[in-house]
Design a protein that fits this description.
Blueprint (H helix, E strand, L loop, with lengths): L2 E3 L14 E11 L5 H10 L12 E11 L2 E10 L9 H5 L4 E7 L3 H5 L1 H11 L1 E2 L4 E2 L2 E6 L12 H11 L3 E4 L8 H15 L31
Parallel strand pairs: 2-4, 2-5, 5-8, 8-9
Antiparallel strand pairs: 1-3, 3-4, 6-7
The structure holds guanosine-5'-triphosphate and magnesium ion (MG).
Length: 226
Amino acid sequence: TLFRSEDTSTMAEDGDDAANEYLYKVLVVGDIGTGKTSIIKRFVHNIFSMHYKSTIGVDFALKVINWDENSVVRLQLWDIAGQERFGNMTRVYYKEAVGAMVVFDVTRVTTFEAVQKWKNDIDAKVLLPPDNRPIPVVLLANKCDLAKEGICEDKRQMDKFCEEHGFIGWFETSAKDDLGIEDASKHLVGKILENDTTRGSNAPKKPSGVSLDARPAPQQKDSGCC
Ligand code: GTP
Ligand code: MG
């Protein structure tokens, strides 16, 4: 399979023989209870539970993707609690992200109404260097194993919505039945790789993305602060 999962603790050993390694920070946002954590758990560990434990603040997971025979992509997934839209921390959480998934729950119209707010929040707070474009964002219509409510029933309307609001695409997903998550991720990673100007035959082995090293990166500014 294209995807394989692992814990951050084992990441150093894997993929070392691939010619190119990329590390990207990806945000997973959306209203409370839409299934962000469940999607990540399914994607990374292939598990699902009906038990709801709301995320507090932010959680992390690492997904390793054998993209092609020469490249390994590591996605650092930032699982941001739905309630954070009402807090002040999203700017901090969004920093240096190169892609995002916005999740809504097909059974609750209010969560779809919030999609635009999440997208606006992302666009206002994170931009892609060097030319400050918005980061690519996919829309996930989650819990598609249940009866849908509202515009997500109409595929044409959903396409139109995505075009108008600058999503690179939308996917019906079910963390419960393991539907759509890999397709959505592939689509997003494809766009992230396209956008990565450091890629190519002369690309450094280490990615342009964020560092997972526990120590803070050395200061690049000559501010004199530690
Ligand atoms: P916050 O952390 O509070 O923002 O919520 P979340 O978006 O992380 O939602 P979470 O993954 O915790 O899921 C909320 C509830 O929805 C849980 O009871 C899950 O079992 C359930 N759920 C998640 N995904 C699916 C799905 O695809 N189908 C069904 N039927 N239930 C789901
Ligand atoms: Mg959660």
